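User: Quick sanity check before I run a bigger batch. Here is a single chain. Can you write out its predicted 3D structure?
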Amino acid sequence: MNAEEFLRLITGVVVLGGIALAYYVNCAFLIIPVLFAAGLIQSIFTKWCPAMTMLARFGIGDGTCSTK
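Assistant: Done. Predicted structure follows.
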């Protein structure tokens, strides 16, 4: 599994988890998917993804959001 796939997996799990927590516990947990969506949107414009930087620190990928 490469870094791009790992990033998609993490994002999907966290977003679904946030939605489930909002449904079953408290609607305030909707902030989790909102923050992840905002991070994805900012990474489009800045070409920097905080999650990829963290994955690079763990030795997965090179820390960039490019697919080249």
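The chain has a mean pLDDT of 88.

User: Great, the batch can go ahead then.
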